[in-house]
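Fold sample X.
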Amino acid sequence: MLCGEAIEYSHVVAAAPTPEMYVAGKQACRKAVSLAEASPEELRSAGVEPVTYDRSKLQTGIVHIGLARGDSMPLEACHAVVLDRLLRANPEANYKWGYTAIGILPHTDNLRDLLKSQDYMYTVTAHSSKAMAPENVTADVRVIGSLKEIVLAFEEPGKVLDLLAAPTTRIFSMSVGEIGVQQDIPSHADMELVTLASDASAAPFHSIDADKEKYLGATGVGVLLAGLAARRACCSGGVTVLSSDPISENGEVLKSKVLERASAVDASLKDWIEFNCQFPNAHVDRMCNTPSKEQVSNICVCEQAIQYLAEKHSIADMWPVVCETFDEWIIEDKFVDGISGRPAWEEAGVKLVETLSPYTTAKKRLYAAAQMMCAFPGLLLGFQYTYESVQFAELLKFMKWMLENEIQKSLVNKPDIDQIDLQYYTDQAMDRLGNVLVSDPLQRITIDATTMISDQIVPAVVDGQNSEVVMKGCALLVAAWAHYVIRAVESRHKLQDDKARLIEAALGMQSGTKIENLLDIEVAFHELIFHQEWRANVSEAFDSITEIGLRETMSKLLDAAEN
């Protein structure tokens, strides 16, 4: 076969998560106790860890701008969980750090209504990364109570400004997505809101709620800037702005955008923000199992998890979070007022570091390589999910070898990399990708795969070669990608890739071989298009997959490396 061998082996994999893993039927929810009404004793007897602190004492110390259902959910799956840990351990010291969330998008009224009916509590069900089959699933289920309230900017813009301007609010947390951060043109509502917030005589601002239509369409960055303007006008002092968006150097990017917007409004506001506020870079990492876009729009939120909780734990939670046990939050320790200007996050497992760069460089490279090794060889072997690739012993062995002997070694000369336990992140990548209950579809990983190769694999190869490492494992990975795109194009399967036209054009050329033409795509392979040894290694792996199959090619490469 052109793109790999026919698969003939008796490998048994766990079934993909299905509704049958949970109990079908919504009747279970009717018999369950509402999360807001369940007593601690009822929760414990049902195997659910209740809130152990007095939620009536919660104060707003952190305002989080942006609510959405996605594959990371930084507020619900990480931030609020971390604060919940602190509140359980030392409630009196942490009541002042309660979260209030600000909804920006119109559909967040559904989320607000659901959580309000539960007194803003929800469950987090964390499934072990060792859950390789449904019968071995273990889960920790606990109620999270650190979210004090949700306020919608399009319903109560004045209340939002009052919260942001309050002296007791010390941190603005934010997750609005890359598009939300990078939006160049402020909306009319953004300008109106910032103008109002800059007027000290308008404070307190809650009176503007009667004229809320005037502020419809305010964006996340617009609300953030209005909050900073309100703090300046009310003499509330500077604040730390903490981004959770999955953008490299997210603090710096957000700061640049905020200062650009502020400069267009008032140069003195820009100066005030630069002098009084901090924008540390941060990285949030926790995978969640979340519903489709269609389910979100219909408020059918994680129906399987709702049924599971109702049947197994007799608890009715209409907005459950299902995620892996692994969670990591790394923040540059640059806060207004230093340690006193933030919770003692380090006591709950958060890494406070001087610079984020070595962590993100190592994690992104290792995880991207592991993901792509699951995806392209896995698809050629007929798999659908990452956990299937990880369960396949031959592929797992090759992945582990490549990560340890090529990707790790490509990182050794990076600044401050000696702070990082590379083996820990290598092991975590494989464990997490093997988690059956938060497993990724392999086809999803192929989206924009050329950009992933350009951003992560090519720099790894270049760095590895500079360290005199022969990157034959990465060459096989690229060869597997080439077989995948050839198979996709020839079967008229639409490539979900922003470089799809370039790939299709390369494959349509009359001169040269398919693999040579793919390796000539400069926006994908950059300086490697001129590296003859690299091209030869990829072509050799590509031809070997065609002639003897992927499994035998991996085996031969490993045998050669070990000998």
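Fold sample Y, listed below.
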Amino acid sequence: PPLICVRVFMELSPQGQGEELDQQERFVSLTEEPQRSPCDTRLRKRDVMLFLVGVLIASAFVGLVLALEHGRTSSGEYSRSRNLVVMVSDGFGPASATLARQSKNPNEGLALDSILVGTSRTHSVTNLITDSAAGGTAIACGKKTFNGGVAVDSDGKPLGTLLEAARTQNKKVGLVVTSHVSHATPACFSSHVTDRHEEMEIAAQQADFLPAVLLGGGRKMFLPIEKGGGRTDGRDLLEEMARRGARVLSTPSELEALDIQSDAPVVGLFAEGHMDFEIDRDASQPSLTRMVEVALQLLQRHGDGFALLIEGSRIDHAAHDNDPAAQLGDALEYDTAVQKVLDFAREDGETLVVSVSDHSTGGITVGADVSGTAEYQWYPDVLHRVSMSAGKMAALYASGTSSISNVLNAYAGITDLTQEEEDEIHSNAESTSSWGGPVRRRARIGYTTHGHTGVDVNLYAFGPHAEDFRGNHDNTDVGNLAARTMGFDLAAETTRLRARRGVYDLSPCPSCLRVGDVYHD
């Protein structure tokens, strides 16, 4: 800006037009009153006026440049994104990214690597270590809450979410996850309860909300007991949504047969509980990437745009189990889904993509001592040989059809199991962590906890205003920046929501407000 001011002044001043003013006319002594003629006075006034005009022009120019740089149009309005995709890699801390990258190809990298912009702090109102409900609320609502609270503030009052704000602007909304669709993270975008474990109530609110796309697991939360579900109120939420025009799916073949040109809502619940880990998944369930592809095909047809939540839910569950092979499989599948979304966003040009974790889980270390010895090495090939999650191995052994050594030989590629390792598993055969022990030792992978950790997580962004996410942010910033880019007013959405208090009859949950509460999911 100083150079611009000088240049404008030189071009507009008499000197810049070739007139030379005597040095004594330009600068006067601080101790002597100069002798000025009427001509001198007129020239000086002219210089001052021209200089001020130059400053004003330069200031306007610089203001325009800065405004455009920060996303404002020439009219002063903030330019908006048409579509929003929020991707949550549940439990995926920075070391998980290293695990995935080095296992895939250390020199090739992940799709996520190209859009890394910063980090996110994850603490909740009550705890330095958050759970998924408080973490999800921060992202979905731009506000902090207590551990266990789902899209409510610290007093238990409902908060407007990104998806609700999107619907207010006549955008289509969708959720694609690999957990129950009523699990903590998707619940934070589509329901309001003071206790995340109230999944039957969450499912009922989601059925009322009825997004354009709802894909994932957790069918039992939507069906009454008499139909094989878990609801004690007798309601068949799938039938209720179908009566409102939804297409209800339960198999990959039904997903593939969808009429993409139809505007009818799609509800696809492909498992009674959580969908399988990617390492265990067979043809009876679609992959996360395939569900994302279908969701984008359905939502992009809407002229007013869309907002979509995607969660790689089970990265977190594998980390809770301290199962590095299952964690790797779901992390890589999530990255494949990221690539699919980025391909769409690059072609579309009007889609903001944000990827962030609600927290890190397990405290995984890529490299661990064995018998007190540090090798400065770890072995991805050990994980590549594993073809079944630790939980499935435990269930297989419990069925009585195979021995411990045979299970690990067949599904983990371990042919040198020691007697000590076998005895350790036998003494705690129901523990998924014990089944993962031989794999962890051979791969040199360590974990510090079966719960969450408080480390900052990676923040990724692509598309309009992605630069706004640079740096270290509180997790509430993620939701608020996304809302600003989309032109969503979350405060107004909260006001509208609370005006319908009868729909969400919530009260504070004192037991949820205790500092130090522990959540293992």
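Sample Y note: The chain has 20 helices and 14 strands.
Also: The CA atoms of residues 33 and 52 lie 25 Å apart.
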